[in-house]
Amino acid sequence: MQILPQLTNLILDENLNGWLRIYALRAYSATPANKLAKEFEELARAALLQREQNLEITDVRSNSRGILQIDLLNELSTLADNHPANRTWFFQAIDEAHPLVQRQYLGIDALRHHHSEKFKQIVVQQLFKLLDSQPDLLDFDIIATLLATTEEAQSWLNDRLDTVVQMCLRDKDNPIIKHVSRRWPQLNELLAHHISDWDEVPSHDTNQRRRADQLEYKSSPAYLQLMRLYDKAAKSDQNAYNQLVEMARSWRGNIPIRAVATHLIGKLSEQFDAFPILAHQMRYGDVNWDDNLFDSPIRHEAGEALLKFPTPEIWEVLVDSYFISPRDDLLPFQIDWIAHLTEVLSGEDQPYDGLSWGSEERRAWFQALNTVKPPDLDSL
Question: What distance in Å separates the CA atoms of residue 307 and residue 14, rounded to the nearest whole number?
Answer without folding.
Answer: 35
